[in-house]
Each structure stands twice: as structure tokens, then as C-alpha cells.
Amino acid sequence: MDLIAFQHVDKRFGAHRVLVDANIAIRQGETLTVIGGSGTGKSVFLKLLLGILRPERGRILFRGKNVPEMSERELIEMRRHIGMLFQGSALFDSLTVAENVAYPLRVHFDYSEAEREHIVQTRLEMVGLAGIEKMMPADLSGGMRKRVGLARAIATEPDVILYDEPTTGLDPANTKRIARLIQELQQKLRATSIIVTHDMDFAFSVTDRVAMLHQKRFAFVGTKDEAMHSDNPVVQDFIHGELESAST
Fold this sequence. Notes:
This protein is α/β, with parallel strands linked by helices.
């Protein structure tokens, strides 16, 4: 069953066209990794899905409803069901870890203080960071900041989790830890996960399918095995180029 679909989507900024006739369907419960070179529209794809940007043409369906036609109230309701791990974690430096994780709970839900504290504690335990509720983001390592960001992304038990370059700036040990966490969360939450990344080793360790943006559209969508053995030279050049650069 398709949870999300982009149908003939065009997006431009002035005269610069970013997406042209982009089409993809994302299934309930799968992990999809979106790859492609810099400037190919990966971040724009996420912003269109969230309704932050609107396309010039086409439909973006979330549970059958067209996101560009949603009212602000409908967009807020949709976003309650979507968690996002930002590239730089995007923690609020003036808030404690607990306050950061609790932030989407305060915005979207009417929980009591005790309920929020319980959810925060549970989510931090899920990402292996129990007991750091009172720490400040400045006191955390890069890997810990990513995991706090992940705890915040899953605080609301979302149906969809978006990961924007989740391993950027991490060492190999923390990259493996994030990969393992994503797999564990997928099993526990049964969420649909969409990952934007250049890290092909990481992508192939967690994903069900791969989608490649190239020349303003999805030039390839298939399983990771199909991606590895694709006869599309653009797919092969990108995948093996990224794997080679990661190994040097």
C-alpha cells in the first residue's frame, strides 16, 4: 500500500528548474533511501513532502490527500505524523536534552508534564542515552547530538521518519550505531522511513529500496540489489564512486 506518492511534480525557483515530472510511490512501512549528487533536489523533495514548499505542477499525496491543497490546519495535522532528523541535528542550544526531545510533544499534543517526562525518558532509552535529560546540547558529542535528534524525531511515534544526511560528520563507530538504531526503530515503530544520504555503505545497510534523483527526476527506483546490479551507467557511476571515496 502506498503511503506517499509524487505524481508529475515540477518545482522551480525562478528560472531554475529543480524537479521536472518527478514520480515516485513510497510504500507503508518501507525504508527508502534517496540518493543523487549535490543540487539534484533531495532536500527540496523533503520540503515538498512536508508542505514547506509547494510545486508548480503535480500532486503530492499523503494518505491519499494532496499536500499542496491542504490548509495550514491540515498541514499541522499531517506533520504530527512525521518525525525528522535534521542534518545538523538542529537542537535548541538554550534547552536541555529533555526539553529538546519534549518540544514536538508540547507543540502537537496536550500531554501532562508527567506524561511528557515518561515519553522523553522512554525515547532516550531507545537511542541508548538514558539519564542525560538535564544535559545541554553544548555538552554532547556529535554522535550524541544525532541520537538526541533521533529521540526527538520519534517522540510522537510518527508514521513517517525523515532522515536528512543522518551520518554526516560522524565517525565509523557512530555511523554504525545510527544504522543499528534506524533498523531497531523500524522494527519497533513500524514507521515508513525516508533517508537522504551520500553514504552508500550506510544506505545499503538499512534500506529496502533506493531512488536516485538525476536530471530533475527520479531516474531509478528499485531494491538495493537492483541498484547494485543496475545497467544504468548513471546509477553505477554514483554508487561505486561514493563507495570508492568512502574507502579512501
